[in-house]
Predict the structure.
Amino acid sequence: MGGILRWIMAPVMRGWVLNIERKFAGIPQPLDAPQAHSAGLDSHRILLVGGGAAVGWGVLSHTLGLPGSLARALTARTGRGADVDVFAASNMTARSAVGYIDVDTLRRYHAVVLTLGVGDAGRLTSPRAWRQDLARLVDRVLQSSPSGTEIYLAGIVPLASLPLFRTPLGALAGAQARTLNEVSARFCARQDGITFVPLPATPASESGRFRSASDYEVWAETLAARMVDHLQPEPGSPDSAVSGGSAARSEADTEEARRRALQALNLLDTAPEERFDRIVALASSALGTSAAAFTVLDGDRQWHKSVVGLTDTEIPRSSSFCTVTVLEPAALVVPDALLDDRFRTNPLVVSGPRLRFYAGFPIESPSGERIGALCVYDEMPRSVADVDVVLLRELALVLQNELWQSTGAAGPAADAGAVTE
């Protein structure tokens, strides 16, 4: 589209976009925390950022939207768990996207998926401006991410597949979307660390629905098919990259970030709560242990928000198993503490409750800090094969979701009423 025509039509298109926004006001969208996961060990961590497909129009849960569909599609291909976090806003553009990303948390992720462009197409963003905005965004993400992190730029879904875009002005936006997709493909072909993934049109949604779960499944399969080669070759390397590389922080910085995250949750020294007690008791029962706890790390102490089978509500940090658990984003399993050099002289092992077995999975704050763990203990050792680590992870994520929801710290939610896919 020529520059003069774009200049003439831009005000008209802005008015058209506002009209579309009003029509979108009543469309359902996810009401839960902006995250989804699929069961498995050694989870891949994926960040999904954008408008359109990331918002989840037409479904009421991110589990049914693109995050959940992508998590399941990746697990089906890799055999590993997958956790997908979402930063979505329906009016997000390539220029505004960086403002939605907490760059300090990018070290957590193995891959970043961007679903951008519909808003830019509707506003007739020029190819030159689109390319420049993409370059700034990609540079910012790559500079703040571990070495080896890959970005996947999802193409703009053909707008003609949406009834609201089957108008003359919608056709103009659709033509601009095709142009921006072409620019994206060329940009990604010349730029290291980013892959362009065209997304197909999907069958028309059922009457009365803007999108349905089946649409997100189609797009998730398309993305997962391109992502799997990057995620699969070295299963152990991404986790080490998350805590190392150019994005690594000092121990003091990590502790300070954990302290701030814990304070923001207003959790410390609060009374026991049935919703947490229930999950902790279920962990102890399901994993067949004599004790379990939801713990957080506060300075030089480990404090138990919820505990069954143990009498102490806090212990010195120096005696804490969970201090080791939070070092990695995966479960820590100690089959026999007396045979483990890290814990054989621990006071909890040689005296007091005389614990021998421990398994814990880290609990994160909405900002990504590992603030504590859901853990189970027993006086009898057991083999690793007897520990259902997948179940422990599932229970930890249920508890984490409960924590996030109760504090109102669910992260940036999709805002209603803007042009989306």
Summary: The first strand starts at residue 35 and ends at 38. Confidence is low (pLDDT under 50) at residues 234-247, 409-421. The first helix runs from residue 3 to 24. The CA atoms of residues 282 and 348 lie 23 Å apart.
